[in-house]
Automatic annotation (TrEMBL):
Organism: Streptomyces chryseus
The protein's name in its UniProt record: S-adenosylhomocysteine deaminase
Chain segments annotated as coiled-coil in the UniProt record: none
Stored InterPro entries: Amidohydro-rel, Metal-dep_hydrolase_composite, Metal_Hydrolase, MTA/SAH_deaminase
Keyword match Hydrolase: yes
Organism superkingdom: Bacteria
Keywords, comma-separated and alphabetical: Hydrolase
Record domain Amidohydrolase-related: where: 76-425
Length: 478
């Protein structure tokens, strides 16, 4: 048996032992976070982009004597997180949502994305992918750009960044600007175009149910189901949208999707914050999935999705950022915290799903929701090797009693030592190992100023600095 290669503390640049270039790795951290929970003295063999084996370290070392074990002291090996709802080309205006009321897509996102040229689309999407990787996400579900460009630019940005991406193609046709037959033909081509890629997985998207005809809602559902893909739709997010649907159809948005034949396992319903008991039953019976986006609810939503009820009723759901911030640990904490404030305090539910619920739905549940449940989201044999090495040797985590809760409540993206996607080391201590992350950030800062100067964005509130100044001037005038 080979002598183990120790990486105590993992200081400095990434060691060559982790940059495999196709070679197999036998990783032996302090803890492996498996589907059955945290396992001490476990190891994982990574080969060909997948986990070849996961089990007790001594057993794997005997089974693979040709591999030198890499001891990862003070580290846990855990699944990469899955962002079940993102808008990669909105990253130049992320801070424009602060303090704004609901339905900002009309005043902010449509004008912003309309001002993006091809370079800006690529840079914005790659910047968002970098932020996601830095925050521990190894997969993002991109809900479809409104920029008038080929979505291959978004695919290229994700591919070049090294993140797994469920790439949505917008199929809106209700405004009569797009012919329905043309829209559906584009959808079919999109599903074929990316069906064999390693990191890019095709998806269809409709902005909101009212943005597409009944035929398109029904046929995109059919096409996606046949291809094993998902259709991403913002559903029951804002009160105004629910009321418009009631006026136009006599049905709430989720009920309307059921009525036209678009509700099923292929649906990924973003937000779903305003659900009646009947709509919860429709979700449970249909097998549809939800992206629970707690930070988006706090920043500009109408309500908090009843995620603990969804979990109890077996409704599939993942956690999504909606482009708010690419920080997976803070997202998991927000998911639990929002349930506690919205539902747990009123009922005396002190557990609110416990820590494991939110880790589960941030990884394996999210992978299932975005249509990749058979591929990623877990540390298990034959699964894609999309994982994190997380430093738990510091004062915040060293005294461990309940690791899932500690990761949810006290975990931080600064603890992420390494990010692997498809078995390759992509980030080391927050920065890419094979492309220039700081250069991208500098270019994004340049481009974003130009884009925002020409985008006809309308904000309701001033910046926080301007608001503070106005408040001070008003007080002085009294």
């Amino acid at each position: 048996m080979n002598h183990p290669f120790d990486l105590p503390g993992l200081p400095g640049p990434p060691p060559d032992r982790l940059r495999t270039d196709g070679d197999a790795l036998l990783l032996a951290p302090d803890v492996v976070l498996t589907p059955d929970g945290p396992m001490d003295h476990y190891a994982a063999v990574v080969s060909g982009g997948t986990f070849l084996a996961v089990g007790p370290a001594e057993q794997l070392e005997r089974a693979h004597p040709h591999l030198t074990p890499v001891r990862l002291r003070g580290q846990i090996l855990m699944p990469g997180f899955v962002d079940a709802h993102h808008h990669l080309t909105q990253t130049f205006g992320a801070a424009l949502a602060f303090g704004e009321p609901s339905e900002i897509f009309r005043r902010v996102w449509v004008p912003l994305e309309g001002a993006l040229d091809e370079e800006a689309v690529y840079v914005a999407a790659k910047l968002a992918a970098l932020e996601s990787l830095r925050g521990g996400f190894t997969t993002v579900a991109e809900a479809g750009t409104r920029a008038d460009v080929d979505v291959e630019l978004v695919a290229a940005a994700a591919r070049d960044a090294g993140i797994r991406c469920v790439l949505g193609l917008v199929c809106n046709d209700a405004d009569n600007a797009t012919d329905t037959a043309t829209s559906l033909a584009r959808a079919e081509k999109h599903l074929v175009r990316y069906c064999t890629e390693e990191l890019i997985h095709p998806s269809l998207a409709v902005s909101v149910p009212e943005a597409a005809t009944a035929r398109t809602l029904r046929d995109t559902a059919r096409l996606a189901a046949s291809a094993g893909a998902v259709v991403q739709i913002h559903v029951n997010e804002h009160l105004a949208a629910v009321e418009r649907s009631l006026v136009e159809h006599g049905l709430r948005p989720l009920e309307y999707l059921h009525e036209v034949g678009a509700l099923g396992p292929q649906l990924l319903a973003a937000h779903a914050t305003l659900l009646t008991p009947r709509e919860l039953t429709l979700l449970a019976d249909s097998g549809a999935a939800v992206s629970y986006n707690p930070v988006a609810s706090a920043w500009k939503g109408n309500a908090v999705a009843p995620a603990t009820t969804m979990a109890e009723r077996g409704i599939r759901f993942g956690l999504g950022t909606d482009g708010t911030r690419g920080d997976a640990f803070r997202l998991a904490e927000a998911a639990e915290f929002a349930q506690r404030l919205a539902y747990g305090l009123a009922t005396g539910d002190s557990s609110c799903g416990a820590g494991w619920t939110w880790l589960e739905h941030a990884a394996r549940g999210g992978a299932d929701a975005v249509g990749l449940g058979a591929r990623t989201g877990r540390i298990a044999e034959a699964a894609a090797a999309d994982f994190l090495l997380v430093d738990v040797s510091g004062p915040e985590m060293r005294l461990s009693w309940d690791l899932p809760w500690e990761l949810v409540r006290r975990g931080n993206r600064d603890q992420i030592t390494a990010v692997f996607v498809a078995g390759r080391l992509r980030l080391w201590r927050g920065w890419p190992v094979d492309w220039d992350g700081p250069a991208l950030v500098r270019r994004a800062a340049e481009l974003s100023r130009d884009v925002l100067l020409r985008a006809p964005v309308t904000r309701v509130h001033p910046t926080s600095t301007a608001a503070r100044r106005a408040r001070a001037q008003g007080s002085a005038a009294q």
